[in-house]
Amino acid sequence: MATILADTYYLKALECYPWELSEVLENLNYALSYDSNHAASNCLMGVLQMEKLKDFQSAEYYLQQALVADPDYACAYENLIRLYLAQKKSTNAERVLAHVQKVTGVSRVFTLWASSRILELRGFVKLARRNMKAALVECMNTEEHDWIEGEVQRLKSKHKILCKQGFYT
Q: Which residue from 76, 123, 81 is spatially nearest to 98, judged by alpha carbons?
């Protein structure tokens, strides 16, 4: 019964995200009070903490709680990698990304994007762009394709700027 209530409150929170944040928070707190191991609720709470409240420590805690609750919860892995990349913690992101390769449900486009961002953070912009181009082949819809195409163009522009500034030959 508690799981059914947790699912109900999670769905209410998800329906409100990202427009009614106070409703999201209230519903997630209810969901987690009924089932503290509810992976989806912990994941959404982590996303809320990361994207809206900018509390990266709490975000990491909730995302890790989601993975403790369900070690195969792909959404939590993706958001944990995004969190580490936002904090420029490329080593942590790379460690999680290596594990994610074995998890069912994680998009190949996402893993290529994440590895590209890690390369970019480490200064390998040209290699990051090549990796991002590989992601274009894996795209399954127009929105995803347009987003990755924009990333390829951004990296191309960044590479040109770095070349003009003498960082590359």
A: 81
Q: What is the C-alpha separation between 40 and 31, in angstroms, rounded?
A: 10
The mean pLDDT value for 44-63 works out to: 98
Model-level pTM greater than 0.90? yes
Encoded amino acid at 152, one letter: V
Looking at residue 132, its amino acid is M
Which residues, at least 6 apart from 110, have a Cβ–Cβ distance to it below 8 Å? 78
Q: Are 67 and 49 in contact (CB under 8 A)?
A: no
Q: Residue 125 burial (CB < 10 Å; 0-12/13-18/19+)?
A: buried
Residue in 23, 4, 2 with CA at minimum distance from that of residue 13: 23
